[in-house]
Amino acid sequence: MIRLTKIGKNKFLLPKTGNMRVDAVVYLSEKLFRDFQEGEALEQLKNAATLPGVYGVVIGMPDIHSGFGLPIGGVMATRVEDGVISAGGVGMDINCGVRLLSTSIPADELDKRFLRKLMDAIEDRIPTGIGKGSRHGNLYKSHFKEIVQRGAIKLIEMGYGREEDLECIEENGCLDGADIAAVSDEAVSRGNQLATLGGGNHFIDLGVVEDIYNEKLAEVFGLKKGTLSIMIHTGSRGFGHQICTDYTRIMVNTAPRYGIDLPDKGLACVPISSAEGRQYYKAMCCGVNFAFANRQLITYDVREAFREVFNRDDDELGLDLVYDVAHNIAKFETHFNRRLLIHRKGATRALPPGHPSNPKKYMETGHPAIIPGSMGTASYVVVGTELARETFFSINHGAGRVLSRGAARKEISQQEFESAMADILYNTRNYKKVLDEAPQAYKDIDEVVNTLSEIGITRKIAKLRPLGVIKGEGD
DNA sequence: ATGTCC
């Protein structure tokens, strides 16, 4: 078993041993540390620390749990000159991410019947669950190349959103460098899921802004206590999944040619500057842009559903985009005066006030970073601080699983599930289909969020409480 | 996460 050494409040060290090139650091509160059972995730951090060109420290966030190659809740920086790029370091669901919309609708105005009507109107428009196709099939057929190369920008040009949405999306809704020529035919054929939600932890939820911790910043973010909020969590669906699968195979096969000794197939990687590395980056950008476009189209559908059910205009409803963050992505960024490729896997970028990569609208506050809890617990809006420099301005992306999907299905009873969901509405007819997503399968979101805010890496801005949740059904 | 194993 790997030992963690406490090196500060909520901060633990996994010291460099064996062929690790750098240390690893894990952020855990005392309670999260006591309950910590993620030996495999620590192995994965150690593995990442052995890769060529890895820089600084490999980081585990408080929501860390084992994943494919790099753990979920993992951050790995590599030097552009001599470092590697890893498809598994980004993850299967490229640019899985979450966006938050604010409204000017007082939540206490809505009774359960009305909330249900809203959820039904949203569900009528957005296919959910694994393997579901899109109602915007025309976009896939006629504009796919431009959408994956130009992301949300292309959709805004076509009228699927507001001009001002773009500033409120990480990378302004388009990661530069996408080239569909780097994407396999098989991946392209799976791109027909544009404008679908998917399954697993993906959701659309209606919530209420329950607590404000910082009035000034909340106002800039458009978050007012007691108003209805909408959160959309989805990614690049089968398209991104296929890109990761394709390039993991390529990287496993070519890594030896570059003298790379792979500790784990899931961490398959090649030099950033290699032909295969550059190709993967181009393809990954397509997956990133697909996911931005996916969330943009879902936003378009949600706004339409709201107009229909309320019979009011956007002007009266708000429905403004607060922000859209990526959870699974690799990006070229400058930290410590060095050009690095930051792999964030189940981790969120959180820039502090004044950082030049903030959008103009949020330059003086830092952009909102959105942290969803589980289907039955709160979510948070936070900002990064200057102290987040030590994590390459990265924070956790959610609560983190504490039970595997299988264990959750086996161990949680119907009564336990229903009591955890209390008076929260959910769309699923059969609770068994979402039992693996039960609140009990996740860590305590308050504890996880506090782990970073207590040591000043984040500042909490607002807390959101779910009222109604739309989930895709697994099997 | 995922046409959850071509």
Automatic annotation (TrEMBL):
Residues given in the record as Mn(2+) 1 binding sites: D93, H202
Residue sites binding Mn(2+) 2 per the record: H233, H327
Keyword RNA-binding assigned: no
Family, similarity comment: Belongs to the RtcB family.
PANTHER family referenced in this protein's UniProt entry, alphabetically: RNA-SPLICING LIGASE RTCB HOMOLOG (PTHR11118)
Signal peptide (from-to): none
Species, as recorded: Koleobacter methoxysyntrophicus
Essential cofactor(s): Mn(2+)
Catalytic reaction(s) noted: a 3'-end 3'-phospho-ribonucleotide-RNA + a 5'-end dephospho-ribonucleoside-RNA + GTP = a ribonucleotidyl-ribonucleotide-RNA + GMP + diphosphate; a 3'-end 2',3'-cyclophospho-ribonucleotide-RNA + a 5'-end dephospho-ribonucleoside-RNA + GTP + H2O = a ribonucleotidyl-ribonucleotide-RNA + GMP + diphosphate + H(+)
InterPro entries reported in the protein's UniProt record: RtcB, RtcB-like_sf
Residues that, per the record, bind GMP: H327, N328, P372, G373, S374, M375, S379, H397, G398, A399, G400, K471
GO MF terms held by the record: GTP binding; metal ion binding; RNA ligase (ATP) activity; RNA ligase (GTP) activity
A Pfam family that the UniProt record links to this protein: RtcB
The protein's name: tRNA-splicing ligase RtcB
Active-site annotation: H397 (gmp-histidine intermediate)
Keywords: GTP-binding, Ligase, Manganese, Metal-binding, Nucleotide-binding, RNA repair
Keyword rRNA processing annotated: no
GO biological process: RNA processing; RNA repair
